[in-house]
Amino acid sequence: MKISFTTGLSALVISLLLVGCQTSGSTENESTENERASSSSVAEGSSETKEQTSASEHNHSHSHDDETEQIYKGYFEDSQVKDRSLSDWKGDWQSVYPYLQDGTLDEVFAHKAEHGDMTAEEYKEYYNIGYQTDVYRIVMKEDTVTFFKNGEEASGKYIYDGYEILTYDAGNRGVRYIFILAEEAEGLPKYIQFSDHSIYPTEADHYHLYWGNDREALLDEVINWPTYYPSEMDGRGIVHEMIAH
Asked: What number of other Cβ atoms are within 10 A of residue 7's Cβ?
């Protein structure tokens, strides 16, 4: 079925983000989650102040050694970055955007406001742009990605197209893992780019996804970073994971 995809708002330089996923930061991006100058968590997906370190929204174990913590914050050596396969993101995933819209994530924004330099309402407005998407579900199985939008679904085979290391204004960095559509198909994005705060093979527990037909333009996108968690998680579980970091 035909589904038209858009990456969302055009890229815009924000140097407020540095945290994202952590209550510190990534993004998304979540240091993306390291929000506005590195203080609170921004982008969960985040945007990542240019993806900004998409730094860590959480690690289900909630336990990090020093090296892992530094990587989540976007501080690592080029030699530490390794190639990854689509299997790292296999599974059935749901967008967190509906939870923002129905108020479920208000507790997260209130928590961020306690440690950051914006009010809960300002955080909500910021994430409303970051999480915004009309693709509420994505399923990845082997090398096939299926997008669900407006009651319709579209599937395509994607192959690995390398990674890009991004440097943010805040001084930290992030990695985008890129996959390209194997055979051109109407209604499917040519490229998808993952940011999940990891830089080597590991099973993702959430991620920020960028998609579109221009590889380079996507690398500049730091304002809109649709974020996905496992579909089996309920809103309460997602809130817990976000606040944990």
From this structure: 22
